């Protein structure tokens, strides 16, 4: 008889593990709180416009990389269209200096040398490593949990040539920038998203954009997530939407069933949570299966911030503009009572015509914040102020865009503002975190267990078991987990459904 697997969450990770377990002869069923698939990987409609709430870029698009082969086990990658960025954006300093962060290494080198010729040693070394790291594939071929001594031994030979790069760039971008004297070069590289990650990630990301391994899926994030759902349903998977799991029942340290908000109890042989780690461990399982390591992780490890995200639907053709313009301000936007932001990245979706009618354009600005509590307090206790704060931030963004680009304000047809509370409401991610744990500066990201101490027949997957998170993290942890479950059941891992 087939084992029955219950999966909590229809985000990318839940859908991925569901897909692979279906391919391997398990009977799986997903329970999703929301009415839609995708979790954080989403977009939504407002009037004529589709506002994208997620993907700037995902890796795995270049055939040379193993992730490309793995994605194709689920996604029709060859039939999909992607936007490959030729620039990470046009950076405009408060003094008006314009610097284009080209992804093509030679062009980037020329641009950086133009603004900071005295930093030629740093720039040349950076460019050399962007070229090198853009073409390497460090993805382990099988989950570390299944490595044998030979795998560990062989891994040294694969990693050895790249170890110098990993060590050289293991400090955070913020730290590296603190040693650079040239002001414009500092602005150019001071991209908020990358700041606290190891510089290695920044160098590799530009390299992978250049090698066309990373890009944006035309059609947006929700359509991308729908493809995972489509495949899953086509191979017999079952999804229950509007089905919030409120408890995982255990008996003698074995996970036995899930209880839904409507009181239904569903029994399974294996239970997987592909949803928020904290809620799973401390609420659904009532904190009964933790040790010091887990307590430390959840009390000390820094989390990726949440966002205030302003999307604008503009009745104007903006195809003549770069796809990202980052405007550094002399005076910051006050996001909330703990967050001031000087750097305003305006993402102009002129590369995806599916998001707006002809001659209209979607624009998005993401401002990061760790201050979930501020937004939660407002939403719960001062609803009117919450709405006014959203409007205040949208107005500030519109003014900045209008001042720089000119003639924007009168053409705005739709305005949408997402706060950390919105993210939490629709995905249950703790404090509205958009990517789980931060990847702290170190050579290798720490490994977080997909199992909990003493608890049998239960696993975790998704962004909360892979620091750095992201679509790739959600996918890899889901695929790896399916392999781990197959190995435990002495099954050969299959990547097709017969
Ligand atoms: C603004 C933004 C930009 C981003 N940009 C990128 C990018 O450019 N590239 C990239 O790779 N990544 C990006 N990410 C991150 C990426 O979207 C996430 O890391 C990834 O989608 C996480 O997937 P997941 O399946 O692990 O979790 P989630 O997407 O959080 O899915 C969890 C699912 O579980 C459901 N759930 C939660 N609790 C319960 C419950 N009790 N019962 C039932 N269901 C439940 C939720 O509703 C959700 O659907 C971005 C995210 C955001 C928000």
Give a written overview of the molecule.
The protein is of the alpha/beta class. It folds into three domains: 4-62 and 70-74 and 218-302 and 436-488, 3-Layer(bba) Sandwich (FAD/NAD(P)-binding domain), CATH 3.50.50; 99-211, no CATH class; 306-430, no CATH class. Helices cover 36% and strands 22% of the residues. It has helices spanning 12-23, 66-72, 105-115, 120-133, 149-159, 163-168, 173-178, 183-189, 199-210, 221-234, 277-284, 292-300, 372-381, 383-405, 420-427, 470-488, and strands spanning 4-8, 27-31, 43-46, 49-52, 82-83, 87-92, 98-102, 216-217, 238-240, 245-251, 254-260, 265-267, 270-273, 306-314, 324-336, 339-348, 361-369, 412-418, 458-460. The strands form five sheets. It has a seven-stranded mixed sheet, sandwiched between helices. Strands 9-2-1-13-19 form a five-stranded parallel sheet, with helices on one face. A three-stranded antiparallel sheet has the order 10-11-12, with helices on one face. The longest helix is centred in the last third of the chain and has 23 residues, at 383-405. The two termini are 17 Å apart. Bound molecules: flavin-adenine dinucleotide (FAD).
Which ligands are bound?
Answer: flavin-adenine dinucleotide
Q: Structural class per helix/strand content?
A: alpha/beta
CATH superfamily of the largest domain: FAD/NAD(P)-binding domain
Count of helical stretches: 16
Task: Enumerate the strands of the largest sheet in spatial order, edge to edge or round the barrel.
Answer: 7-6-15-16-17-14-18
What number of structural domains do the residues give? 3
Main beta sheet strand tally, sense and closure: 7 strands, mixed
Q: Low-confidence parts lasting 5 or more residues at pLDDT below 50?
A: none
What would you call the shape? globular
The CATH topology of the largest domain is given as FAD/NAD(P)-binding domain
Helix content: 25-40%
- Write down the Rg: 23 Å
Strand-residue fraction? 15-25%
Reported CATH architecture of the largest domain: 3-Layer(bba) Sandwich
Give the averaged pLDDT, no decimals: 95
CATH class designation of the largest domain: Alpha Beta
- Alpha-carbon distance between the two ends: 17 Å
